[in-house]
Amino acid sequence: MDKSMYAIEVDNLTKIYGKGETTVTAIADATFQVKPGELVAILGPSGSGKTTLLTAIGLINEPTHGKVVIDGAVVADEGWTPGFDLKRMRREKLGFIFQAHNLIPFLSAIENVMVALEINHLSRSEAKSRAIELLTSLNLGHRLNNFPSALSGGEAQRVAIARALANKPKVILADEPTAALDTENGKNVMALLKKLAVENHSAILVVTHDHRMVEGFDRIFQVSDGRITGES
Amino acid sequence: MNLAIRDIRYHLGRFILTSIGLGLLLGVVISMGGIYRGLIADALAILHANKADIWVVQQNTNGPFAESSRIPEDIKYRIRLVPGVAEASPLSFQTIQIERYGKPFRFFLIGYELNSSGGPPEIVAGRDIRQKHYEMVAAQAMGMAIGEKIHLGLHDYTIVGLTGKIVSSSGDPVAYVSLADAQDIQFKKDNDAIRNDRERIGANLATIQSLSPAQGKYLQQNITAITESTHTVNTIVVRLAPGANLHEVQERISRWNHFKPLSDAEQTAILAKGMIEKARMQLGLFRIILLVISAVIISLIIYTSTLDKIKVIATLKLIGAQNRVIVAMILQQSLLMGIIAYGIGYLLILLTYEKFPRRIVLEPFDLQMLFVIVVAICMISSFVGIRKALTVEPAEALGG
To answer: Which residues of B touch A111 (CB under 8 A)?
Structure first.
């Protein structure tokens, strides 16, 4: 398969924090690719470098070495500055799902999805119809006007997923999406992500420490002490 | 989608309470400006009511509003003969405080020549003074009714009319009586004092051996007439004939000994600069302090509100929100809070300013200036929140 066919390409990605004797290598020489429609897990214990890897791919953290390519566009490379707006790249190409849903507390469920669309310059009416469509497809049609405080953990996370999917991103990055959920809700969320990866043809990269949650994933990368130690 | 409005809607109770608190503070700031304008209006009320061109006062004094000024009443005849003078009216001023219904009752009494200038500027109820004695027109603020009597000096005075909101430079309501009555109230001694004076003068004259009894009696009558005379006034207000030259008339009067002709502008300046300047500075300083307090409060509210939203801001940044979306959210909230607080403060003063013990004058210019200052304060105050928001890293949205 041609390299440009990958949604995510990570090549020798290294992130080092600090200088001199206090340097900490958070992630070292990570190399992998994720195809569109693929559901991939980065599995490892706390402090193993999972989130650092995710932030580097998510254009939040600039890697020290290595290269990151998202949907064919180089977004990070050693000694190279991208000639485009990274925020725009995040808006258009990436979707984020967080550990604790991170819904905006003063916006209703529908508004939480609409905000991501309006930031991406969709008109109010377009944003509203797309948000209704997304939330309804995630069985939240009856919760459109509820604030996050009135939603259950599972419902809130589904709204967060709807927000991540709002702009039809090529890549969805999920940081411990089941950490705040019970096992059953966690499994439901993972199943939903798998379904969405296939339906939307999006590459979904999930960071988790919970091996029980990665059943049915297309690929699983084991991370330990900043290195990818295995793939299954 | 307006995030500022959404946040306010969600935290409506907190926002309303904060705005009311700030509104009360701005209400005080508005009232301070109103009190200052009221001070000026009060101080100049009598001046404006008289519409005089010249105030003739005692030489080397700044006139009756600044210090004691006593001049003989009969100088009015001489002034009336000055070319260019259309009218010269003697006026007497005195502040009176008496007990009424067991409470201190204070007012400013003006004595004026009937059918001459210097009397009540308007009659809102009853009538003007018609008799030379024992009638009074009182300002509404004195709270007296027509027909009511008040005892001053040796006599009772009946309220025959009410005038509008005229007050002295110290804010006391004004009452009018005839000049003769005002002079009686101010200068007439009681009968015991008169008898004592006459005895003392008689006894002193009796010691002068060279006086014949007829001369002594004649001299005693003359001295008594002078000492018992009440024909003294505080000022004579002069109105000029159309086309008369103010400076020429002033020049003529100032040539006489013992008198000082102050133009209306000079009298206004003495009142405004001399009497009000310190109050103006005091109130001005107080307003500045209150505005600084408001700015600090708005800054703190916006800053803590931004701290509350760190995760929201980080999430917005992570999903690609432009900085202007975040800046607009903070700035709009700050402006809305300031504008609503200003509205509350303004409404509060508008509903209550007539109940203030002293006059509050709300000038549109002052209100507009304060509005602009409040908007500026809100914008400046929001910078602390904006600065904090712009330093928030999108990565802060990650983790638990």
So the answer is: 1, 6
